[in-house]
């Protein structure tokens, strides 16, 4: 699982998809592939290695159509090699599919296929899914849409998929359950991708597919339907808020270096319009209507994964100190499975850069089932966590491409400070306790920039320690 791009329009699908896959290279991957419809036949090219290796495999007279799908794969089922790379096809060659996620019941589906004389050629769960679609299409005499729906209704697991069918040369189907997908709406063209970076060059108008939804895309229209019941779901078209240059390196050697150097600006963006230094007040419109319920809560939980979990540990110190109430931090993968004391007297704060972290999303759903108020701290506007929590705050850090989080982490810690100040003041905290924190936040972007400006002095230190395998960090409190 890794990056997905799909295209239907008047441009060269090959060119759009290859460029899109290159924009998704930051995710890391071990193989890449593309499938297009050419002369009413599905054509697949895929290879182990980089997108540049894929380009070398594509001859000039292939993949010339305006309908196609592409994928960069990070192996989960099956070793990284040419045969296990996506897209996958069924034995009839009528269906090709790219997939992010894990099909948990692929073994039982594979046995069903074997019992009906269908043998899989690869080790992947993805091939099992597309072979299952081909089997249902032939056995049940279904159209393209109903074939995909029926197959997905029998799948257990998580997926973001895009599918082509040779018999439907003007249709693209995308579906999502547990793995993000969005639809880009252009001028007489449509795009599908696992995030917005392959799309922004062509359109800012997007639709986020929600859990259990399927998009049927044709040259002049699209419909979003519920997978389980096939009902049409009205969707709101949203606008991508960032610019193309924000996902370029901007003269830096790599994205991580760029994002390190953006932190003074992104902290300023997290504070912008939210802090009144003269009155020592904080305004967070995303949680305004829920402030009293938060203050009335008996328990505050914070749940996250990875770097967001580390930001949450700092956040718990901030909230406990300012609110004088217990705050518990849990890894989302633990929170979602174990029995907790979460109930209607609880607030669960969910932290994620992408807003699509699967374990954190599952934790939100569990918390809501138990009656808790959920609050999201996310970076990506309109993401699943932003939509599924009751309320929340954006960190406004812009796209974070580097795998090691930098500006998102400092943005999350900044937002925890703002939430703590706002709630503390509403609770009647002494203004003299709040004012120094606000003054420090005002000074923070400048202090960060002063450190970044010392890059030439810091470089020799980094070079001195670059080969050290282990570091031990000692600190206390916020340190």
TrEMBL record:
Write one Gene Ontology MF term: carbohydrate derivative binding
GO cellular component, as recorded: cytosol
Q: Choose any GO biological process term that the UniProt entry carries and state it.
A: protein N-linked glycosylation
Q: Does the keyword Ribonucleoprotein apply?
A: no
**Enzyme kind, highest EC tier:** transferase
- Known EC number: 2.6.1.16
Q: Which CDD domains match?
A: GFAT, SIS_GlmS_GlmD_1
Signal peptide from the UniProt entry = none
Q: Cite the SIS domain residue spans from the record.
A: 290-429
**Keywords of this entry:** Aminotransferase, Cytoplasm, Glutamine amidotransferase, Repeat, Transferase
Transmembrane ranges?
Answer: none
Q: Which reaction does it catalyse?
A: D-fructose 6-phosphate + L-glutamine = D-glucosamine 6-phosphate + L-glutamate
Q: What is this protein called?
A: Glutamine--fructose-6-phosphate aminotransferase [isomerizing]
* Species the sequence originates in: marine metagenome
